[in-house]
Design brief:
Layout lengths: L16 H16 L12 H4 L2 H6 L8 H32 L6 H22 L4 H5 L14 H10 L14 H12 L3 H11 L6 H4 L11 H12 L5 H32 L11 H7 L6 H9 L1
The structure holds protoporphyrin IX containing FE (HEM).
The site of protoporphyrin IX containing FE (HEM) has 24 residues, from helix 4, helix 12 and helix 13.
Length: 301
């Protein structure tokens, strides 16, 4: 019975006969279900997911209400970043083996995870500058600038600078992983090798370029993509791969832009906790281009 169907004498908090029968029905329903109840000898939901461990990592260092939000959004973002790393690495292993269609599945997952990362800003933006200042001093020099997972995503995608290894020197394992990614081909390098394997002419300076450097546009790469984009029927798998990479870069830009906007509305032009100029540094990063020729090809078609 809905509120509007109640008689004038009914009170919203009083139970009607219908309500009781509905309650009884749901109780019966639950007892009839053979849901497992004894977890003395098997893993429960919380055991399997190690929820105690997960929650133990949520440890605000002040009494500020919004520090919980700040920590939760960072934790969730780190989990998505780890997933993105796994998916990128798996897709790159397939690309290195000459496979073009299977990596699309993993890259699609990357794109969806990026959407979740970008949506997280909407929750964080409910925090006011004054809320933030209540706990800002408590985390000292800690900053997302030191996020190993984020840096690994950037390295895998090709935005690489050896100096960015610096903040990880105190963690040899993390440093080694990042360093290995820095010296290995990026997802774009692997894609260009596939173009060459399909007979599209690419010079040695493209195929054997120094992987430690960020991508620099090359006319031969542009020509190769022009061939693919002018005749997608012949090169459908490469065309689809290129468009998927573009989706990844598109989403990466959205994340960066929303981060910058959130930072500006929270700390204005204050310096970052990581020691950079803050909004100025992040604004410069908006100019980063991961797959230059995939954008340029549109102008030249
Ligand atoms: C109100 C919340 C936030 C503020 C005020 C903020 C502020 C900043 C600032 C100023 C920087 C520049 C580096 C520095 O610290 O000097 C930065 C970098 C960064 N932040 Fe945030 N941030 C916030 C939330 C987040 C969240 C939720 C994440 C999620 C992981 C994140 C990830 C990063 C990353 C990965 C960088 C490095 C970007 C790069 O090097 O291009 N930030 N942040």
């Amino acid at each position: 019975m809905t509120g509007s169907e109640r008689g004038a004498g009914d009170h919203a908090d009083s139970h009607s006969a219908d309500d009781y029968s509905a309650d009884q029905h749901s109780a019966d329903q639950h007892s009839a279900e053979r849901a497992h109840r004894d977890f003395t000898r098997s893993l429960s939901y919380g055991d399997y997911l190690q929820l105690d461990t997960l929650k133990a990592a949520h440890r605000p260092v002040t009494a500020a209400h919004d520090e919980h939000l700040f920590i939760a959004v960072h934790h969730v973002s780190e989990l998505w970043l780890e997933l993105i790393v796994r998916e990128l690495e798996a897709a790159m292993a397939q690309l290195a083996g000459g496979i073009t269609d299977a990596p699309l599945k993993g890259l699609t997952r990357v794109v969806r995870a990026q959407e979740q990362l970008t949506n997280a800003w909407e929750v964080l933006k409910t925090m006011t500058p004054a809320d933030y200042l209540q706990f800002r001093e408590a985390f000292g020099q800690a900053s997302g600038f030191q996020s190993a997972a984020y840096r690994l995503v950037e390295f895998l995608l090709g935005n690489r600078h050896a100096t960015l290894l610096g903040p990880h020197e105190h963690r040899p394992e993390v440093h080694a992983r990042l360093s290995a990614a820095l010296h290995a081909p990026s997802v774009y390098d692997l894609t260009l090798r596939l173009l060459a394997a399909r007979g599209l002419p690419l010079p040695p300076e493209v195929l054997a370029r120094d992987p430690c450097l960020p991508p620099t546009p090359h006319p031969a790469v542009l020509d190769a993509w022009l061939t693919v984009y002018r005749d997608p029927d012949t090169y459908w798998d490469l065309y689809e791969l290129a468009e998927k990479l573009l989706d990844v870069e598109d989403n990466f830009r959205r994340w960066r832009f929303n981060h910058l906007t959130t930072v500006e509305r929270t700390i204005g032009l204050r310096r970052g906790s990581g020691g950079t100029s803050g909004a100025g540094y992040l604004a410069r990063a908006l100019g980063v281009v991961l797959f230059p020729e995939l954008w340029e090809v549109r102008t030249n078609l």
